[in-house]
Design goal:
With 363 residues, this protein is an alpha/beta fold. It contains 14 helices and 12 strands. The longest helix is centred in the middle third of the chain and has 30 residues. It is flat. The two termini are 30 Å apart.
Length: 363
């Protein structure tokens, strides 16, 4: 799963990306510093892993990961190829969700492409360019569907009606992600890889002095804008998070305490992104390794087993499952089994976040 970090030039995208990944993306005070996307892989924070590993004295602990892509800054006119528009649009089409960084700080030393700090205008600029690109895609698909109606196949009439509805929504300057679709309609939408159908988190990038402040008017505007499209907002200071990412665990804890913060903004961002992508983690534990495995919500046990090895899915017999909290409380799998807390689940069982699983299979 990939998340694209996007925003206007000089809003702090690359600073945030460096903090997330420590991948060394170039940062500079001029537009289009990021041309080709930088890519970094980030571990998803999961406190359950260390506790399970301690229980089993595991030799290895393996978290699950997300991939972040730092995409070039976009400007007005990108849908017509302005700036690095074509590159931006092609790169964002390849990601599964968007982290939209919005500048909510004033700094005379950092230029702004519009020479003013206006987060609503910034968000609208990017969203409009994505909407315009989607209008072009939908128009082309609609024209084809209308022509294909001549074959008499009813599916093209249904498709044309849906595309017409999507087009009208886009022309009212609303993203496709704010629309409701049934299962068949959703399949068609996904097939078009529309930019505005991707889920989004708005990252309000604030100044260091504004950390912990509750009356930031710029942040309030971002929240209002996000709520209007049922999206989430995360308030974060990219500059501080980048500094924090260079510290060891003890220094980091002291740093957070000095700001009165319980958890870093990066941890909160990664967790929110994991949820945004509708992902859950099931856990496996033992002396050799304790590990988190990623599946999408609604995944059934055999397919979840296939994440470990294809043979597990092919020869699936059952999944023996203990809830994480129960496992921790009782002290291990054997203790849970003695107490009758190990559930035997079949092929139709839907994996839940926090399931500690032992798969039985035969190939």
């Amino acid at each position: 799963m990939k998340l694209g970090v996007v925003g206007l030039p000089n809003v702090g995208k690359s600073t945030l990306f460096n903090a997330i990944t420590q991948a060394g993306a170039e940062i500079a005070n001029y537009p289009f510093c990021t041309i080709e996307p930088n890519v970094g892989v980030v571990a998803v924070p999961d406190e359950r892993l260390d506790k399970l590993a301690a229980l089993y004295d595991s030799r290895k602990v393996t978290p699950t990961y997300l991939k972040f892509v730092d995409i070039a800054g976009l400007v007005k006119g990108a849908s017509r190829g302005e700036g690095l528009g074509n590159k931006f649009l092609s790169h964002i089409r390849e990601v599964d969700a968007i982290v939209h960084v919005v500048r909510c700080f004033a700094d005379s030393n950092v230029t702004h492409v519009s020479d003013k700090i206006d987060p609503v205008s910034d968000m609208a600029t990017i969203n409009l360019e994505l909407i315009l690109a989607d209008i072009e895609t939908v128009n082309a698909r609609l024209s084809k569907a209308v022509n294909m109606q001549k074959t008499g196949d009813k599916k093209y009439k249904t498709e044309a009606a849906l595309l017409g509805r999507i087009l009208a929504h886009l022309e009212s300057e609303k993203p496709v992600r704010t629309m409701q679709f049934d299962e068949d309609e959703q399949a068609l939408v996904e097939d078009m890889f529309l930019l505005t159908s991707k889920p989004v988190i708005y990252a309000a990038n604030i100044a260091e002095d504004d950390i912990g402040q509750r009356d930031n008017e710029l942040v309030k505007k971002v929240v209002e804008y996000a709520e209007a499209e049922n999206a989430e907002t995360l308030v974060i200071c990219a500059k501080v998070e980048e500094e924090l990412s260079r510290l060891d665990a003890e220094e980091k804890a002291m740093f957070l305490e000095s700001y009165g913060i319980e958890e870093s903004g990066l941890n909160r961002l990664v967790k929110k992104c994991y949820k945004l992508l509708r992902l859950v983690s099931y856990l496996t534990a033992g002396e050799k390794e304790t590990r988190a495995w990623t599946v999408t919500e609604g995944t059934k046990a055999p397919q979840a087993a296939g994440k470990i090895h294809s043979d597990f899915e092919k020869g699936f017999i059952r999944a023996e499952i203990v809830d994480y909290n129960t496992m921790l409380e009782l002290g291990g799998y054997n203790q849970a089994k003695e107490k009758g807390k190990v559930r035997s689940e079949g092929k139709d069982y839907v994996i839940k976040d926090g399931d500690v699983v032992l798969f039985r299979f035969n190939v």
